Amino acid sequence: MTDNSFAPSPGSSASAAEETDFGFRSVRKEEKKPLVRAVFDSVAGKYDVMNDVMSLGIHRIWKRIFVTELGPQPGLSLLDLAGGTGDISFGWLKGGGGPTVMTDINASMLSVGRDRALSQGLVSDLSFCVVDAEAIPLKDMSVDRVSIAFGLRNCTDKMAVIREARRVLRPGGRFMCLEFSRVQVAALSPIYDAWSFKVLPAMGNLIAKDRASYQYLAESIRTFPDQETLAEMFREAGLSHVRYQSLSGGIAAIHSGWRL
Ligand SMILES: C[S@@+](CC[C@H](N)C(=O)[O-])C[C@H]1O[C@@H](n2cnc3c(N)ncnc32)[C@H](O)[C@@H]1O
């Protein structure tokens, strides 16, 4: 992928209402999905190794906390949105969770996930489906848990995702989101900034031969709503008992809301 693939259409005269963020840039809403798709098509093969390198393995701890909080039980079904290469779905199943539908808008990410599932012997109770989290092709009130990990910031209409998650949840069901958030420890900020904007793109270039995608990933973290704003979006979508937990000084956060 080259830097040019991030360029908005020339001559675009979109109004602010028709625009959305793509990292630090403003692009027309209809341009974001193909741009995000290009990022994940490009990084799919190196996604898992890059996650370990970029987070120094810490994403594994965050995901473990997230899955434990999701509360896997054999009788509960899970819809994993933006499931990528499968960490959340696999954690759920290994933790004793019930029927799981692992979804993502990118077939390239799901295909890496399917190969990983096979190699880990995770074949029963797991299905795969290409799904746009903004328009979930499931009936109302049909699943017990909906998860999205590091996916919401890549979606164009984040409120649509949260509303859709609530719609497909059974009463008593829970939606949980794990996402990068706002650092709350002042001393951490300069180190985190240097890591995000200098080290990450350089490592993306070195390991995945793709500086631009990792520059986007760093930028998309900074344009994502902070902890309180996201909690308010959950409430606005009709979720109840909304709460959140910051992780690693606010680098990431887990948000949770129930459909009552
Ligand atoms: C950073 S990865 C996260 C993957 C996985 N959940 C994890 O935690 O490792 C973000 C994923 O969001 C997916 N994605 C982006 N926009 C999406 C959308 N509108 N609907 C569903 N998935 C989407 C991408 O294809 C990508 O696989």
Automatic annotation (TrEMBL):
Pathway: Cofactor biosynthesis; ubiquinone biosynthesis; Quinol/quinone metabolism; menaquinone biosynthesis; menaquinol from 1,4-dihydroxy-2-naphthoate: step 2/2. GO terms for molecular function: 2-methoxy-6-polyprenyl-1,4-benzoquinol methyltransferase activity; demethylmenaquinone methyltransferase activity. The keyword Transferase applies. Keywords: Menaquinone biosynthesis, Methyltransferase, S-adenosyl-L-methionine, Transferase, Ubiquinone, Ubiquinone biosynthesis. Its EC number is 2.1.1.163, 2.1.1.201. Residues 1-20 are annotated as: Disordered. Transmembrane segments: none annotated. Residues 7-17 have a biased composition (Low complexity). Methyltransferase required for the conversion of demethylmenaquinol (DMKH2) to menaquinol (MKH2) and the conversion of 2-polyprenyl-6-methoxy-1,4-benzoquinol (DDMQH2) to 2-polyprenyl-3-methyl-6-methoxy-1,4-benzoquinol (DMQH2). PANTHER family: 2-METHOXY-6-POLYPRENYL-1,4-BENZOQUINOL METHYLASE, MITOCHONDRIAL, METHYLTRANSFERASE. HAMAP family: MenG_UbiE_methyltr. This is Ubiquinone/menaquinone biosynthesis C-methyltransferase UbiE.
